[in-house]
Amino acid sequence: MATQSAKNEIDLPTAMLGVRRRKRKVAKAKAESEEIKFLNIVAMVDVLTILLIFLLKSVSVSTTTAPKTPNLTLPMSTTQVPPLEAVRVTIAKDKLFVQDNSVANINKGAIPDAELSGDNPMLIPDLQTGLTNWLRLAIVNKAGDEKTFNLEILADKDTPYYVLLQVSYTAGQSFVDVGDQRFGYDKYRLKVRRGE
Question: What residue segments make up the domains of the chain, in order of their start?
Answer without folding.
Answer: 67-194
